[in-house]
Protein backbone atom coordinates (compact mmCIF):
# COMPACT_ATOMS: atom_id res chain seq x y z
CA UNK A 1 0.00 0.00 0.00
CA UNK A 2 1.35 3.45 -0.92
CA UNK A 3 1.49 6.37 1.50
CA UNK A 4 -1.59 8.62 1.43
CA UNK A 5 -1.29 11.69 -0.82
CA UNK A 6 -3.64 14.52 -1.74
CA UNK A 7 -6.05 13.72 -4.52
CA UNK A 8 -4.88 16.82 -6.40
CA UNK A 9 -1.32 15.48 -6.41
CA UNK A 10 -2.50 12.15 -7.80
CA UNK A 11 -4.35 13.97 -10.61
CA UNK A 12 -1.15 15.89 -11.42
CA UNK A 13 0.72 12.60 -11.65
CA UNK A 14 -1.95 11.14 -13.94
CA UNK A 15 -2.37 14.08 -16.30
CA UNK A 16 0.72 16.27 -16.05
CA UNK A 17 -1.51 19.28 -15.39
CA UNK A 18 -0.77 22.16 -13.03
CA UNK A 19 -1.88 22.16 -9.39
CA UNK A 20 -4.59 24.71 -10.14
CA UNK A 21 -5.88 22.67 -13.05
CA UNK A 22 -5.95 19.56 -10.86
CA UNK A 23 -8.02 21.42 -8.27
CA UNK A 24 -10.43 22.64 -10.96
CA UNK A 25 -10.87 19.13 -12.33
CA UNK A 26 -11.71 17.87 -8.86
CA UNK A 27 -13.93 20.78 -7.79
CA UNK A 28 -15.78 20.48 -11.10
CA UNK A 29 -16.78 16.91 -10.35
CA UNK A 30 -14.64 15.41 -13.10
CA UNK A 31 -12.51 13.11 -10.92
CA UNK A 32 -13.56 9.72 -9.60
CA UNK A 33 -11.99 7.65 -6.83
CA UNK A 34 -12.88 3.96 -7.18
CA UNK A 35 -15.72 5.05 -9.48
CA UNK A 36 -17.20 7.67 -7.12
CA UNK A 37 -17.00 11.40 -7.87
CA UNK A 38 -14.81 13.20 -5.36
CA UNK A 39 -14.96 17.01 -5.15
CA UNK A 40 -12.38 17.73 -2.43
CA UNK A 41 -8.82 18.30 -3.72
CA UNK A 42 -7.40 17.85 -0.21
CA UNK A 43 -8.79 14.35 0.37
CA UNK A 44 -6.15 11.65 0.74
CA UNK A 45 -5.87 8.60 -1.51
CA UNK A 46 -3.54 5.61 -1.50
CA UNK A 47 -3.89 2.85 -4.06
CA UNK A 48 -7.48 3.63 -5.09
CA UNK A 49 -8.31 3.92 -8.78
CA UNK A 50 -8.32 7.63 -9.71
CA UNK A 51 -9.63 8.69 -13.13
CA UNK A 52 -10.96 11.66 -15.10
CA UNK A 53 -14.47 11.48 -16.52
CA UNK A 54 -14.92 11.89 -20.29
CA UNK A 55 -15.16 15.55 -21.35
CA UNK A 56 -13.31 16.80 -18.27
CA UNK A 57 -12.24 20.44 -18.47
CA UNK A 58 -10.31 22.45 -15.85
CA UNK A 59 -12.75 25.36 -15.77
CA UNK A 60 -13.76 27.43 -12.72
CA UNK A 61 -17.17 26.53 -11.32
CA UNK A 62 -20.06 28.75 -12.35
CA UNK A 63 -22.21 29.88 -9.40
CA UNK A 64 -25.69 28.37 -9.37
CA UNK A 65 -29.14 29.41 -8.19
CA UNK A 66 -31.50 26.87 -6.64
CA UNK A 67 -35.29 27.20 -6.47
CA UNK A 68 -36.64 25.33 -3.45
CA UNK A 69 -40.25 24.60 -2.51
CA UNK A 70 -40.05 24.25 1.30
CA UNK A 71 -42.95 23.18 3.50
CA UNK A 72 -44.74 26.03 5.27
CA UNK A 73 -43.29 27.50 8.43
CA UNK A 74 -39.65 26.43 8.08
CA UNK A 75 -36.82 28.71 9.07
CA UNK A 76 -34.26 29.46 6.37
CA UNK A 77 -31.75 27.20 8.11
CA UNK A 78 -34.24 24.31 8.16
CA UNK A 79 -35.15 24.91 4.53
CA UNK A 80 -31.50 24.76 3.45
CA UNK A 81 -31.17 21.38 5.16
CA UNK A 82 -33.68 19.99 2.65
CA UNK A 83 -31.16 20.42 -0.16
CA UNK A 84 -29.50 17.21 -1.28
CA UNK A 85 -28.86 15.33 -4.53
CA UNK A 86 -31.83 13.11 -3.67
CA UNK A 87 -34.27 16.02 -3.28
CA UNK A 88 -33.61 17.46 -6.74
CA UNK A 89 -36.85 17.45 -8.75
CA UNK A 90 -36.79 14.50 -11.14
CA UNK A 91 -38.24 16.63 -13.95
CA UNK A 92 -35.70 19.45 -13.65
CA UNK A 93 -34.84 20.43 -17.23
CA UNK A 94 -31.84 22.62 -16.40
CA UNK A 95 -28.66 21.47 -18.11
CA UNK A 96 -26.55 21.50 -14.94
CA UNK A 97 -24.29 18.73 -13.63
CA UNK A 98 -25.21 18.33 -9.99
CA UNK A 99 -22.32 18.87 -7.57
CA UNK A 100 -22.36 18.79 -3.79
CA UNK A 101 -20.55 22.12 -3.81
CA UNK A 102 -23.76 23.64 -5.20
CA UNK A 103 -25.21 23.35 -1.69
CA UNK A 104 -22.51 25.53 -0.12
CA UNK A 105 -22.26 29.32 0.25
CA UNK A 106 -25.93 29.89 -0.58
CA UNK A 107 -27.65 33.18 0.19
CA UNK A 108 -31.37 33.92 0.19
CA UNK A 109 -33.43 37.07 -0.19
CA UNK A 110 -37.11 38.00 -0.70
CA UNK A 111 -38.35 35.83 2.17
CA UNK A 112 -41.67 34.02 2.02
CA UNK A 113 -44.72 35.32 3.82
CA UNK A 114 -45.08 33.75 7.30
CA UNK A 115 -46.34 30.12 7.15
CA UNK A 116 -46.13 30.08 3.34
CA UNK A 117 -44.66 27.40 1.12
CA UNK A 118 -43.45 27.91 -2.43
CA UNK A 119 -40.66 29.56 -4.33
CA UNK A 120 -37.58 30.23 -2.20
CA UNK A 121 -34.47 31.46 -4.02
CA UNK A 122 -31.06 30.29 -2.81
CA UNK A 123 -28.08 31.51 -4.80
CA UNK A 124 -24.29 31.49 -5.00
CA UNK A 125 -24.38 34.15 -7.71
CA UNK A 126 -23.75 37.72 -6.50
CA UNK A 127 -25.33 39.06 -9.69
CA UNK A 128 -28.60 37.26 -8.99
CA UNK A 129 -28.55 38.39 -5.37
CA UNK A 130 -27.95 42.00 -6.38
CA UNK A 131 -30.74 41.84 -8.95
CA UNK A 132 -33.24 40.54 -6.39
CA UNK A 133 -32.20 43.05 -3.74
CA UNK A 134 -32.03 46.11 -5.98
CA UNK A 135 -35.26 45.30 -7.83
CA UNK A 136 -37.25 44.07 -4.82
CA UNK A 137 -39.75 46.93 -5.14
CA UNK A 138 -40.20 46.26 -8.87
CA UNK A 139 -40.43 42.47 -9.01
CA UNK A 140 -43.94 41.12 -8.78
CA UNK A 141 -44.47 38.18 -6.46
CA UNK A 142 -47.45 35.93 -7.07
CA UNK A 143 -49.13 33.92 -4.32
CA UNK A 144 -52.00 31.44 -4.38
CA UNK A 145 -53.88 31.60 -1.08
CA UNK A 146 -56.41 29.07 0.20
CA UNK A 147 -59.06 30.88 2.23
CA UNK A 148 -62.06 30.10 4.39
CA UNK A 149 -64.97 32.28 5.45
CA UNK A 150 -67.50 34.44 3.65
CA UNK A 151 -65.98 37.35 1.73
CA UNK A 152 -67.34 40.84 2.24
CA UNK A 153 -69.45 42.30 -0.53
CA UNK A 154 -67.21 43.77 -3.26
CA UNK A 155 -64.24 42.73 -1.15
CA UNK A 156 -61.80 42.27 -4.01
CA UNK A 157 -62.78 45.55 -5.62
CA UNK A 158 -62.06 47.28 -2.32
CA UNK A 159 -58.64 45.62 -2.15
CA UNK A 160 -57.84 46.74 -5.68
CA UNK A 161 -58.55 50.35 -4.68
CA UNK A 162 -56.75 50.14 -1.34
CA UNK A 163 -58.40 49.71 2.01
CA UNK A 164 -58.08 51.12 5.52
CA UNK A 165 -58.20 48.69 8.44
CA UNK A 166 -57.95 49.81 12.07
CA UNK A 167 -56.22 52.99 11.00
CA UNK A 168 -53.76 51.18 8.73
CA UNK A 169 -53.72 51.89 5.04
CA UNK A 170 -53.34 48.74 2.93
CA UNK A 171 -52.14 49.70 -0.56
CA UNK A 172 -54.03 48.64 -3.70
CA UNK A 173 -53.28 45.07 -4.74
CA UNK A 174 -53.99 42.78 -7.69
CA UNK A 175 -56.29 40.04 -6.41
CA UNK A 176 -58.56 37.58 -8.20
CA UNK A 177 -60.36 34.33 -7.53
CA UNK A 178 -58.66 31.23 -8.91
CA UNK A 179 -61.60 29.08 -7.80
CA UNK A 180 -64.13 29.07 -4.95
CA UNK A 181 -61.52 28.65 -2.22
CA UNK A 182 -58.29 30.05 -3.68
CA UNK A 183 -57.24 33.64 -4.30
CA UNK A 184 -54.32 34.83 -6.41
CA UNK A 185 -52.37 37.86 -5.24
CA UNK A 186 -49.74 39.69 -7.31
CA UNK A 187 -47.79 42.27 -5.35
CA UNK A 188 -44.33 43.79 -5.02
CA UNK A 189 -42.07 43.28 -2.00
CA UNK A 190 -44.88 42.51 0.48
CA UNK A 191 -44.07 43.06 4.13
CA UNK A 192 -44.50 40.02 6.41
CA UNK A 193 -48.17 39.32 7.13
CA UNK A 194 -49.52 41.64 4.43
CA UNK A 195 -51.43 38.98 2.51
CA UNK A 196 -53.08 37.70 5.69
CA UNK A 197 -54.03 41.31 6.49
CA UNK A 198 -55.65 41.72 3.05
CA UNK A 199 -57.67 38.56 3.55
CA UNK A 200 -58.78 39.53 7.06
CA UNK A 201 -59.83 42.97 5.79
CA UNK A 202 -62.50 41.35 3.60
CA UNK A 203 -63.65 38.69 6.08
CA UNK A 204 -61.45 35.78 5.00
CA UNK A 205 -59.09 33.53 6.92
CA UNK A 206 -55.91 32.12 5.43
CA UNK A 207 -55.74 28.32 5.45
CA UNK A 208 -52.52 28.09 3.41
CA UNK A 209 -50.50 30.08 0.93
CA UNK A 210 -47.87 29.35 -1.69
CA UNK A 211 -45.59 31.67 -3.65
CA UNK A 212 -45.59 30.50 -7.26
CA UNK A 213 -43.62 33.22 -9.06
CA UNK A 214 -41.04 35.99 -8.60
CA UNK A 215 -40.77 38.30 -11.60
CA UNK A 216 -40.47 36.10 -14.66
CA UNK A 217 -39.43 32.94 -12.79
CA UNK A 218 -42.13 30.45 -11.75
CA UNK A 219 -41.84 27.70 -9.18
CA UNK A 220 -43.28 25.28 -11.72
CA UNK A 221 -44.50 21.87 -10.58
CA UNK A 222 -41.68 21.27 -8.11
CA UNK A 223 -43.16 19.21 -5.21
CA UNK A 224 -42.92 20.40 -1.63
CA UNK A 225 -39.52 19.56 -0.17
CA UNK A 226 -37.79 19.44 -3.56
CA UNK A 227 -35.77 21.89 -5.65
CA UNK A 228 -34.62 22.67 -9.16
CA UNK A 229 -31.90 24.77 -10.77
CA UNK A 230 -32.60 28.19 -12.24
CA UNK A 231 -32.41 27.61 -15.99
CA UNK A 232 -29.90 29.45 -18.16
CA UNK A 233 -32.68 31.25 -20.05
CA UNK A 234 -34.74 32.20 -16.97
CA UNK A 235 -34.72 35.82 -15.81
CA UNK A 236 -36.24 37.37 -12.73
What characterizes the major β-sheet? 6 strands, mixed
The overall pLDDT, averaged over residues, is: 93
Number of strands: 17
Shape: elongated
Low-confidence stretches: none
Describe the fold and architecture.
By secondary structure, this protein is of the alpha+beta class. The chain has three domains: 5-52, Roll (Structural Genomics Hypothetical 15.5 Kd Protein In mrcA-pckA Intergenic Region, Chain A), CATH 3.10.290; 65-137 and 216-229, Alpha-Beta Plaits; 140-214, Alpha-L RNA-binding motif (Alpha-Beta Plaits, 2-Layer Sandwich), CATH 3.30.70. The chain has six helices and 17 strands. The protein has helices at 7-15, 19-27, 76-80, 126-134, 155-161, 194-201, and strands at residues 5-6, 31-33, 36-37, 44-45, 50-52, 65-68, 107-108, 117-118, 120-123, 140-148, 163-165, 168-170, 174-177, 182-188, 205-214, 217-218, 227-229. The strands form five sheets. Strands 8, 10, 13, 14, 15 and 16 form a six-stranded mixed sheet that branches. Helix 1 packs across helix 2. The radius of gyration is 23 Å and the shape is elongated. The model has no long low-confidence stretch (mean pLDDT 93).
Amino acid sequence: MTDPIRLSKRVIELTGCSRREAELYIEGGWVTVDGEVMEQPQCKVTDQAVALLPGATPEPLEPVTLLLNPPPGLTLEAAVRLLSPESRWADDRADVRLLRSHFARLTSTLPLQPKASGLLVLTQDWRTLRKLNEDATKLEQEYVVEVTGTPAANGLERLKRGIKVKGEELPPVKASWQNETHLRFALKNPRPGLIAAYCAAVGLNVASMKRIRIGGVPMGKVPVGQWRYLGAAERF
